[in-house]
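Agenda item 2: NAP complex prediction
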Amino acid sequence: MERAAPLRWGILGAGLIAGEFAKDLRFTDAGTAVAIGSRAQETAERFGEEFGVPNRHGSYEALVADPEVEAVYVATPHPFHLDGAILALEAGKPVLVEKPFTMNAAEAREIVRVARERDLFAMEAMWTRFLPHIHEVRRLLAEGVLGELVTLTADHGQWFARDPEHRIFKAELGGGALLDLGVYVVSFASMVLGTPERVVASSEPAFTGVDGQTSMILTHAGGAQAILNTTSLAKTATRAAIVGTEGRIEIEPQFYRPTSFNLIMRGEAPLHHDPAHEGHGLRHQAVEVAHCLREGLRESRLMPLDETVSIMETMDAIRAAVVS
Ligand SMILES: NC(=O)c1ccc[n+]([C@@H]2O[C@H](COP(=O)([O-])OP(=O)(O)OC[C@H]3O[C@@H](n4cnc5c(N)ncnc54)[C@H](OP(=O)(O)O)[C@@H]3O)[C@@H](O)[C@H]2O)c1
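Presented output:
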């Protein structure tokens, strides 16, 4: 049976993605944004007005203490995810934490530790995981239709104007292509192939010194390889392919957002899968959180905490392996 009332969200940080999340919640009755918390009351008021969010708080502390808030969505730049998540957990609230979950694996382990200690739900907001086409891809993988997996390719490149103040280029705000965009391809490889055994990587800096482009090869048990690229210097095709001995799945364009894909069995014509979709797609992760909380779960089966930690470990390993 569906939940009678929508899950009441409090949004921590009134930035760009926070607004997109609030807008996309309008496509579901599983959740609603009841509160916004900002470092400034004026920003909270403006955000509340624009997105129809009734409770407006001028501090993150006031947001997490709001008794109407049932779950907190942490939507600050990545260096502040740890503090935001711990603040909410210590106030007794379950958390959905923007991607990348944290700056590194040590921080990720800290959030997981506090969530488990307090017996509260936590999840990384890797929204791609919960999209309709990814559900279809996972179903096909679980059925083993591709045979033995051999190669995975994925790229995530976006063009950003050369603004040294933008968080993608600013080290203090967690800048760099790998953390912001690369986490999508690393997470995708993790979903399909698991944790890699070996990592090689090469990076080129952007004009501020943070990584502007990083290419990676991850090798998995059994020899399957993921060949991944990320850049903040140019818009790439953002395609992904999963290739097995019996066939392949090609997801394009923009594998990380709602899209379609082709299943191409060896020697056969492509079968096009195009799940219906409207809106941005950010709400599916909120639907998953509502479902988990209703079921009394402390983490999502689709985006488990141990996998989030493993993804951050892979990100650490990539940075350690980088040959510039
Ligand atoms: N899922 C997606 O598709 C997607 C897309 C974009 C970004 N993201 C992720 O979401 C997070 C936020 O990205 P965004 O693009 O929304 O960032 P943004 O527009 O810069 O907003 C982040 C918000 O965080 C708050 N904040 C707290 N401390 C801050 C500080 N020292 N400097 C700047 N802002 C601070 C600010 O809100 P207040 O002033 O209200 O406190 C700010 O508006 C990042 O981790 C990013 O990776 C996800």
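Discussion summary: The domain at 132-276 is CATH 3.30.360.10 (Dihydrodipicolinate Reductase; domain 2).
Owner for follow-up: CH.
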